[in-house]
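Subject: Predicted fold for DUF38 domain-containing protein, 109 residues

User T.R. writes:
Posting the sequence so we have a shared reference for the thread.
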Amino acid sequence: MRKTCHDLRNFIDDTKLTPHANAIYITMESNLISVDIYFDNTDQPLKLEYIRRKDGCQVERYSRISNFLKNQNYIKVFCQDFQIFLNYLKNQKTPIRSQNLPSLSSSPQ
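User M.O. replies:
I've generated the structure tokens; pasting them so everyone works from the same file.
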């Protein structure tokens, strides 16, 4: 069983349409990764949050619907989900207009 956000995985697995994502915003904090994905055909973005918990990872959709993944690292779960989403975007014909991806630069010495 793939240990990813079921909502994102099911959406991608079930949707055979050409993707129309036009913006992706990712925010990283010490215990949280927040993702907002905007699509051309809706005003409501897909909002996902990956929250570090003491004994696993909480994945929330729209801050209401959540899944708890016991003994899973929230960063690894996000990376697995994001890879699935990037594979989905391979079929997109138009470029994403806006993106805000956090940098992973090392701290100055």
